[in-house]
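pls design
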C-alpha cells in the first residue's frame, strides 16, 4: 500500500519584451515575443521509494510567428531517499538555421531500485505476495542515455507534414550504485538472464508525422498521426538486434464554440520482433519515448510496466473541461479538469495474440491541469484500476499525456 503526498508550488514567471519597432517604420507594432520560465518543485513519499524531492523547470521563447515556441530548454532533477534517480536536460529548437527543421536533443540518467516485474505479457500477476520477500516483484537497474531527433517540415500548418529521423543510445546496467546485481530472490532474477540485460542499445528510427492540432502542448481541435520504423543492430553499435514499428493516432473534438469541452483520444499500435533487454521491450516507438503498459502515461491506475510485451495495442480517452483562466504579472494561466479512461491489449510475443485471453487492462480516473502561457502544462492525475484492487495512484508530471 503506497501513501503518496504531492506538494507543488509555482515558481515566479518572468518575461522580456522583444526589441521595439524602430521609429522609421510606419507599420503597426507587432505582437511582442517574450521569454518565459516555469517550474514545479515536487515532494512525495511512497513505501517503496521513500521520500522524493526535486524540481522540473522549463525556459522557452514565445513568438507570434513560430508555434508553440521558438525554443525550449527543460531540466529535471529528481531523487528519493532510497536511491531512485531521474535526471535529464532536454532542448527543443524550431526553424533551425531558418530552415523548416526542428531538432530535439535529450541526455539523462535514470536509476531505480524498485521497478516492477510481474511476469510476461498479459499473464503478469503481482497480486499475490504471501510467503515472498518484499522485493520479489521488483528489479533494479541504471540507464544512461542520449536522444537526438530531427523533423523536416514538408508542409506548414494547419495540416503540417514532417519527416522524422532519430537516434537513441542507452546503456543498461542491472543493479544499483555499487551493487550491480539483481535481487537474488526475485521473479526477475529467476525468469530473465541477467547477462542479457546489460549492454548498449543503439537504435535508429525513421518515419513521417501528420499534425493538424491547433495548439501542440494542449490541443483543443485537430489530429496527429505518426508512423515509424525502428531498428537496433550491431552494425551501429548495439548489443541487441531487433526491428520495431509504431502507428500512433490522436484526435481532438470540441463540443462548444469556445472549446472549453474537448474529447481527446489516442490509439497506439506498436510491435517488435527480435531480442532486446526488458527496458527496450516496454518502450513505445516513435517520438513518444514512453513505456507501457501501466504507469503515468499509458495505463494510469496500474503500477508502471506491470504488463511488458513486444506487442502493444493501447486506447486512451480524456474528457477535458477548461473552467477558469486568469493573468498574474503578465503571465496567463488556464485551469482544466479531466476524466480519463486507459485500456490496453499486450502480448509478450507476436505469436501470443493467436490465443489471447480476454483480460481487460483497464485504468481510469480524473485529474487537474494548469496551462501556463499555453506552453507549460502541469498535470496531476489520480488513477484507479480493478487490477490494483482500486488502490489510488497519483501522478504529478509536466505536459499532457497526449
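designed seq:
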Amino acid at each position: 500500500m503506497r501513501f503518496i503526498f504531492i506538494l507543488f508550488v509555482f515558481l515566479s514567471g518572468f518575461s522580456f519584451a522583444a526589441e521595439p519597432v524602430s521609429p522609421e517604420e510606419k507599420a503597426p507594432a507587432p505582437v511582442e515575443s517574450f521569454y518565459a520560465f516555469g517550474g514545479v518543485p515536487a515532494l512525495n513519499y511512497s513505501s517503496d521509494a521513500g521520500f522524493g524531492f526535486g524540481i522540473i523547470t522549463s525556459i522557452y521563447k514565445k513568438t507570434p510567428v513560430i508555434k508553440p515556441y521558438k525554443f525550449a530548454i527543460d531540466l529535471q532533477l529528481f531523487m528519493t531517499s532510497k536511491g531512485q534517480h531521474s535526471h535529464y536536460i532536454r532542448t527543443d529548437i524550431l526553424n533551425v538555421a531558418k530552415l523548416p527543421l526542428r531538432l530535439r536533443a535529450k541526455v539523462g540518467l535514470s536509476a531505480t531500485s524498485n521497478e516492477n516485474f510481474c511476469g510476461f505479457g498479459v499473464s503478469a500477476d503481482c497480486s499475490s505476495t504471501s510467503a515472498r520477500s518484499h522485493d520479489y516483484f521488483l528489479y533494479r537497474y541504471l540507464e544512461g542515455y542520449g536522444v537526438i531527433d530531427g523533423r523536416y517540415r514538408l508542409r506548414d500548418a494547419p495540416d503540417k507534414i514532417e519527416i522524422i529521423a532519430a537516434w537513441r543510445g542507452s546503456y543498461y546496467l542491472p543493479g544499483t550504485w555499487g551493487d550491480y546485481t539483481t535481487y537474488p530472490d526475485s521473479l526477475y532474477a529467476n525468469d530473465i538472464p541477467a547477462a542479457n540485460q546489460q549492454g548498449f542499445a543503439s537504435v535508429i528510427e525513421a518515419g513521417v508525422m501528420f499534425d493538424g492540432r491547433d495548439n501542440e502542448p494542449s490541443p483543443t481541435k485537430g489530429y496527429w498521426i505518426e508512423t515509424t520504423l525502428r531498428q537496433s543492430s550491431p552494425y551501429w553499435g548495439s548489443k541487441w538486434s531487433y526491428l520495431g514499428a509504431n502507428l500512433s493516432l490522436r484526435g481532438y473534438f470540441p463540443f462548444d464554440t469556445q472549446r472549453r469541452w474537448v474529447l481527446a483520444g489516442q490509439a497506439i499500435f506498436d510491435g517488435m520482433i527480435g531480442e532486446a533487454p526488458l527496458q527496450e521491450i516496454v518502450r513505445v516507438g516513435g517520438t513518444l519515448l514512453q513505456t507501457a503498459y501501466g504507469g503515468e502515461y499509458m495505463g494510469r491506475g496500474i503500477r508502471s510496466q506491470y504488463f511488458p510485451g513486444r506487442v502493444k495495442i493501447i486506447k486512451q480517452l480524456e474528457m477535458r473541461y477548461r473552467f477558469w483562466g486568469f493573468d498574474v504579472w503578465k503571465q496567463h494561466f488556464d485551469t482544466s479538469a479531466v476524466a480519463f479512461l486507459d485500456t490496453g491489449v499486450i502480448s509478450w510475443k507476436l505469436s501470443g495474440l493467436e490465443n489471447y485471453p480476454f483480460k481487460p487492462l483497464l485504468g481510469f480516473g480524473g485529474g487537474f491541469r494548469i496551462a501556463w502561457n499555453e506552453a507549460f502544462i502541469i498535470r496531476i492525475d489520480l488513477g484507479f484500476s480493478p487490477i490494483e484492487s482500486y488502490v489510488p495512484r497519483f501522478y504529478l508530471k509536466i505536459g499532457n499525456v497526449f
